[in-house]
Amino acid sequence: MGNRTIVPFGPQHPVLPEPIHLDLVLEDERVVEAIPRIGYIHRGLEKLVEKKDFQQYTFVAERICGICSFMHGMGYCMTIESIMQIEIPERAKFLRTIWAELSRMHSHILWLGLLADAFGFESLFMQSWKIREQILDIFEETTGGRVIFSVCDIGGVRKDISAETLQKIVGILEQVDKELKELTEVFLKDTSVKSRTKGVGVLSKQAAFDLGAVGPMAKASGVELDMRTQGYAAYGKLKFAPIIDTKGDCYARTKVRIKEIFQSIDLIKQCVELIPEGEIKVKVTGNPSGEYFTQIEQPRGEVVYYAKGNGSKFLDRMRVRTPTFANVPALLETLKGCSLADVPILILTIDPCISCTER
Amino acid sequence: MKFVKKSPWILHYDGSSCNGCDIEVLACLTPLYDVERFGIINTGNPKHADILLITGSVNEQNIPVVKQLYEQMAEPKVVAAIGICATSGGIFAECYNVVGGVDKVLPVDVYVPGCAARPEAIIDGVVKALAILEEKSKDARKKTGK
Amino acid sequence: MSIMSMSKTLFKNLFHGPFTVQYPIKKKDSYERTRGRIGIDIDDCIFCSMCQRRCPTGAIQVDKAASSWSIERLSCIQCNYCTEVCPKKCLHMENQYTSPSFGKVRDEFIKCTNTQSPSES
Amino acid sequence: MYAISVLILFPIIAALLVRIVKNDSARDMIVRISAVITAAITLTVVFLYFKKGISFNFPHEEIIDYIIAALEGAIALFIIIIGIKNKKYIVSVFSAIQTPLILWFEFSQKHDITVQNGIIFDKLTAIMVLIIGIVGSLICIYSIGYMKWYHYHHEDYPVRKNYFMSILFLFLSAMFGLVLSNNLTWLYFCWEITTLCSFLLIGYTKTKEAKKNSFRALAINLGGGLAFATAIVFIGMNFKTMELSVLINMKPEAMVLIPVFLLSVAALTKSAQLPFSSWLLGAMVAPTPSSALLHSATMVKAGVYLIIRLAPLLGDTSVGRIVTLVGGVTFLACSLMAISQSDAKKILAYSTLANLGLIVICASIGTQESLWAAILLVIFHAVSKSLLFICVGSIEHQIGSRNVEDMDILLDVSRKLSLYMMIGIAGMFLAPFGMLISKWVAMKAFIDSNNIFIVIILAYGSAATLFYWSKWMGKLVSNANVKNHKKQSFRKDEEIPITIHAVLVVASCFGFPLISKYALIPYLTYLFHADALIPIGTSDVKIMLYMLSALLILPLSFIPIYKGDKRRKVPIYMAGENTGDNENFHGSMGVTRKVELRNWYMESYFGVKRLTLWSNLISIGLLCAGIILLIGGIAA
Amino acid sequence: MGQQTIKAISSNELLAEVLHLKNDGYRLVAITCTCKDGMELSYSFDKNYELLNLRINIGLDEDIASISFLYPFAFLYENEIKELFGVNIKDIAVDFNNSLYKIPVKTPFRKEGTE
Amino acid sequence: MNILMNIGFVIAAPIVGGLLTGVDRVITARMQGRQGPPVLQPFYDVMKLIQKESIEVNSMHRFFVYISMVFAIFATTILITGGDILLAVFALTLGSIFFVLGGYASNSPYSIIGSERELLQIMSYEPMVLLACVGLYYADRSFFVKEIINNSIPAIVYLPGLFIGLVFILTFKLRKSPFDLSMSHHGHQEIVKGITTEYSGRDLAVIEVTHWFEVIFTLTLVYVFFATNAPISRVIAIVICGLVYLLEIVIDNAFARLKWQQAFTSAWIITGTLGIVNLMILSYFR
Question: Which residues of D touch B45 (CB under 8 A)?
């Protein structure tokens, strides 16, 4: 066909919160080909291990991404702890789990808002982000930061949450739960929303596995892949089952994420009940020597940390394989044959974190 | 009367930030902070924008992009660097791929510190930018002799 | 078929009135732990340079000879690391964030005989 | 009377001259002079007879009849032979049935029928003659320049310019005859000649495709001719008359409706209505001047002309309803299908079909208002569409393509051409221009005659029309900055006719109140024996003329009047990756890619294949229903 | 936290091993490269939450085959390693030719002279 | 006197249109739980745009928006002064087409995609608008607004179906979600700002003012359905215009943006069914 339209999409584009570029080849509005270009956020922060010592690097790790900041910090700390064979206190593990699950909630609600924005549902976006602010308030109260917490440290956590604050958190979560249920009605039942998500960007189970998809992207296609089941931090002591859907379209991914939010609320409540008293941190001495791979579950899926120490203050190598990096091939697969109006939805569907991907 | 003060439209560009400041910029639009009170709209299109908000330390690939966006904005215009990365490069200043600070690429008018910059700080920054915007529009008038 | 399922929420919002915090007229309450900016009780400082060495961004500069402690506000990432490592605990995190500026800000604190004055350079 | 004979005969002489002269420049001169003379005769005839009209019979009617019979026989022989030669037996069969039928009728049955008025020149004829004479002569001149370029670029086609030109002139003569004849046998003869001309011109390039399409056109038109012939025989045997004017004045009874139906079928084939439309689309392989003249401006109008003549017999009758619905289906389906086309000539062809459909609807509804609209549509469509065709011809010459998508550089290549093209397109659908005025009146007429379905069809069809014309216009104004195209010379032989045409389009829009007052209203008053009124209020006409005047400032956009204005020019927005030349962007994989911008075609909605199938089925169904109704009518 | 499986193999065994793992239903988790005393490549695989790492040590300028025809999405990892470390990975399915990130410095992670 | 009043109406039209847009923004904000801008914000925006620099990508593309505005004003004038409703619709369509051509003239990717979408939208709503006019003519035997609104029975009695269809179509015309495909008031769209992408400064202000006229135009269409020769009905009609506008705001906030396929088919199907049913019934009783 000669009637092909070729347009650039991004890096600066109103629907893209982060810069990524696609060369879109369209027929009418159908996407025939989408070729990505990344590198707009590549900073080269893995190289920073040579300039910052392994303690300072915690702060770098937290700033790999501002949305799952805490999880990055936690993953990095866990890796170093494993290399140095440090067993952190139980309470610290629970606190990490609470913050991690709150992060997941905040990330998913944020994603819901952006998704609503992508299909032009402004009020839904506003409503989602309004709910999200309550969780940010919890963050600010417990850690002092709205986005970047700086509470995770090698050997434990820097700040404790008092019992009454924990109760207050449960109270807020109940309110969030109520408001979210109202929102869920719209996301999962509204006809106009469904018309934009159902059957859009279908990824079969086989394709999801073959393309190495992780996180909600894989879960929505029926691939059970949830690193939390490995029982790191306090997850081993909590009761939960990974959330799976089989349809593999945008609707399924929305559903998986929404269910995960409610699951997180449940997990936090369990944590609040089970959290033991005690220390929150052990003292760390010496320098890491050895190597370790850590896999944890971020809101966007499995993340792999690899660190290699040589006995000095500075690590030899620190590498993060983030979930978005693994999901990009799946995104490209779903983009083929969609329509231009679906492009923002599909880009969002992997919940892209370009700053994670490119580091 | 300079109406630009009453309706500043912003363009947000993420020049390799960690997302932290980006989501705070977006949070400014949401019910709790609602910058539309001041007539602020996030246009997403340089040709309509008055204020360019840049987050992140600007890496090699972004230099031509931000320059082009700046060029495509109509006078009077101001640039606000949001967050530590944009103001100085922050923790990433030493990375091989970042220039460190937007001011290495564009004339920055307002620096909004914070890691991540708080919504209140961003609002403060935009309000400060308005003063500059007004001045610039006066200058522009003088130049054209009107 | 469920059309306009959002309208319930919309009308609730409409009748509730705006949730907006009227910043800058009215400020949102900050929490005890809110991380704004680093402050120093310069009198207690012993200029050990621990904070300077540990600061991940190199924002802090300590000059023992001139007994001055200064911080580049536009480089500080409020990680709170300096306050943790400070042996005298004279650094602390203030709730108030640094306000936006038109240029680079370096806040310098000099320990003089009985006087302390923040001055900008 | 003599003037009319000259009008019919002069083009034949010109055709012979052009055929004989071998020298290129001499022939070109002859063509130019003949064309000018044709136009002059046309104007003279109209000037002479416009006021009062004329109706007469030639003194040597018998001789003329014999000549015609001889020629008909010769043509039939020719068609049968080529049909057998090219294994297109269907045309041979059609020809072998209808000509003997007519000849048999001529020699055995016709003796007791006297024809009072073989030729009638009234207001409608005047309009048709004007269209044929003016548009025809302009296109003849245009084809001089066009054909030169055509053979320069298509070296593989045999050069037969004299053949081409002479057929054009022959066609003009036939067309004059067609609209002037009141005698049905003469009308039929001219009808067949136009069919033949069309066949010869479509097959001009002698390529395989051209041959195939020309035979399809011939077969369908001969089929229509067969219906015509049958109708003549039926009329002659049953009502003992040979005159169209007499037929029209009869009462629409069941017996009368049978020949009317047959004539309508003949008209529908000529006007390429569904399901007979495929030949017109195939006819687009012919050189553009023939498309402009035969396949949009005049020959296809012969069909609707016949229906307009028959209008008093259609109206509320079953035949009228069927014809209306066939026209409706054609109008809607072709308007929709035009959206999926990118070949300019194909779009024009579909649009022609659609507009013919609209005229058929208006004519077959047969009220005063609707006929007013139908005749105006004929006028506006003829001038606008032939302008568009010849513009496309020249554009093809200038940019080497007639794909609409390639026309985005036209603004740089030739501002004049794009302006004329814009005028043509605007003439086809924009508010104050003629087509829209007629559509408006048509709509009113439909409501007044209680045709709800037709109103709805019109609403949908107009919306689709708007889509494909606007996107074409969009391409014309989009400022692609390709600077490295080479400019072709714009021949005077092309430029002058195009310019005059463009002026005609605008003038006809300004002049429509006059046309209405001096030609349409008297004609309709005479036809309906009741005072006709202009269907649009005077105040609206005034407003519309204001709008038109306002639109005349449009060409200003083509003149860079802002040269003195010091606005800052910036690169267009390409998400921050414009390379600076407004054409390329920094793409993925480290390559610089060109932005390509194409229109929408929406194949899945308006794909030709599916729509053609369905609309053909519906229209065939309608015609069958018509036959059943007729039989039922006689039985009752 | 238990000890992790790291299986050292030579560079020409790579394809055979990877094929074997693919047939076993392993998922490629990551490819990691460290530049210390030559290039140290780790291919991490996962099946039922069991992490398996293949370790290959090659010289700075040695070639290594791409596994992108077995695991198509490996092209991202391989392009990254090629661009940042300068490891010669041959026949990557989609080769960005060192323009994945378009960085101003060439192979920043490569430490010359550590061999 | 009459002429003066008409002139007054035409001058008031953009002011009312601007105010309505302002009210729209406030109500939208409140529905989203936000405070929202001042009511006069649209005027501030336009004033600012006039004071700003106007940049351009080529010398042609801005020309079209001015013509577009001229025809929008023209159409509104015809309608408000009680002229021929069909002519007004044609004039407005002409204006819209010039707007589309402006998008094409800039030859920028997103403008052109926006233009295509806008054309598609025009194609989607045009049949309904025409049928509404036809219906009014059918009910009152006149295309003239001043005659239609001087009948004793409001047109709505005859044309409930067409009115519902018209309200459906207004969503297109007012550029509200779910049919704000070509150009949305909210910035976040896959085609940036559609046709307006390349416009800035004064040209953008013109587009905004044109939109105000369009708002008035569409609401006048609603008005025509309810007004009769009784003075009280005029008031009721205006109130209903307000309610319809409010309904559109709610719809805007309660729908996701649909794709062109859905927009197009839904518009045509609704037009077809409502149009046919309503007109058939009407023709039966006439």
Answer: 573
The parent domain of residue F45 ranges over 2-285
Distance separating alpha carbons of residues A338 and F271, to the nearest angstrom? 28
Mutate to test the interface with F, among B1, B2, B3 (most CBs of F within 10 A): B3
Q: How far apart are CA D313 and CA D310, in angstroms?
A: 6
Q: CB of E102 within 8 Å of any CB in chain D? A: yes
So where are chain B's domains? 3-144
pLDDT band at E113 (very low <50, low <70, confident <90, very high): low
Q: Is E touching F (3+ C-beta pairs, cut-off 8 A)?
A: no
What's the domain count of chain E?
1
Token match 């029309």: residue?
A: D465
Comparing alpha-carbon positions, the chain F residue that sits nearest to C11 is F31
Per-residue model confidence as pLDDT tens digits over D453-509? 888 898 999 899 989 998 888 888 877 665 656 666 677 788 888 888 888 888 888
Contact (CB<8Å) D471/F138? no
User: Average of pLDDT values for D611-630?
Assistant: 89
F36 touches chain C (CB under 8 A): yes
What is the rounded CA–CA span in Å between residue A107 and residue A245? 20
In a domain, A7, yes or no: no
The pLDDT of residue B30:
84
Helix (H) or strand (E) holding E30: strand E27-35
In a domain, E104, yes or no: no
Nearest partner of D102 among D72, D74, D67, judged by Cα: D72
- Are 3 or more Cβ–Cβ pairs between D and F shorter than 8 Å? yes
Place of tokens 């049955």: D109
Write out pLDDT tens, residues D78-101: 888 888 888 888 888 888 888 888
Contact D504, D383 (CB under 8 A): yes
Instruction: Look up residue D249 and give its two tokens.
Output: 């004045």
ipTM for the whole predicted complex goes beyond 0.95: no
**CATH code reported for the domain at B3-144:** 3.40.50.12280
Helices D368-399 and D434-448, axial angle in degrees (round to 10): 150
Cα–Cα distance between A244 and A221 in angstroms, integer? 8
Contact A51 B94 (CB under 8 A): yes
Chain F residues within 8 Å of chain A (Cβ atoms): 28, 31-34, 109-110, 113, 177-178, 180-181, 184, 186-193, 253-262
Contact (CB<8Å) F255/C4 = yes
**Could you give the CA distance from residue D100 to residue F76 in angstroms, rounded to a whole number?**
64
Contact partners, residue D214, CB within 8 Å, separation at least 6: D199, D200, D202, D203, D282
Residues 430-459 (D) with a CB less than 8 A from some CB of F: 430-432, 436, 440, 443-444, 447, 450, 452-453, 455-456, 458-459
Please state the separation of Cα D549 from the chain's center in Å.
27
Confidence (pLDDT) at D330: 92
Adjacent-strand bridge partners of A292: A307
E101: closest CA of chain D, how far (Å) = 10
- The single residue listed with the structure tokens 């469920």 is C2
- Helix (H) / strand (E) element for A297: namely strand A289-298
Please count the CA atoms within 13 angstroms of the CA of A64 that sit on its side-chain side: 32
pTM exceeds 0.80, yes or no: yes
Residue type, D412: D
Q: Mean of the pLDDT values across residues A298-327?
A: 85
Quote the domain boundaries for residue E13: 4-90
C-alpha distances (whole Å) from D35 to each of D22, D39, D40, D382 are 18, 6, 9, 18
Q: Do C6 and A124 touch (CB under 8 A)?
A: yes
Q: What number does CATH give the domain C32-112?
A: 3.30.70.3270
β-pair partners for E5 = E52
- Residue A2, domain member (yes or no): no
Confidence of residue D591 (pLDDT cuts 50, 70, 90): confident
Q: At what angle do helices D254-270 and D184-202 cross, to 10 degrees?
A: 20
